[in-house]
Amino acid sequence: MNESDTSRVIEMAWEDRTPFEAIDKLFGLSEQQVIELMRKELKPSSFRLWRKRVSGRKTKHLKLRNPEIDRVYCPTQYKPR
Length: 81
Description:
With 81 residues, the protein is an all-alpha fold. The chain is built from four helices and no strands.
């Protein structure tokens, strides 16, 4: 994964409304792989803050999300590669 892709994955992981499934769809990284990437790329304190923020967050997991929301991302969310 190049530096630009790594940066985008980190950005998406921090976004509240971007589920891990969207990251998997675009970059082929499972939730566990995203966690490992974040652990590697962030400072330890930033990683702990991020983990606390996303743990159990309904918007980060499609299975926990309201079924009326049928999209995985906002159409204007992604930047051109």
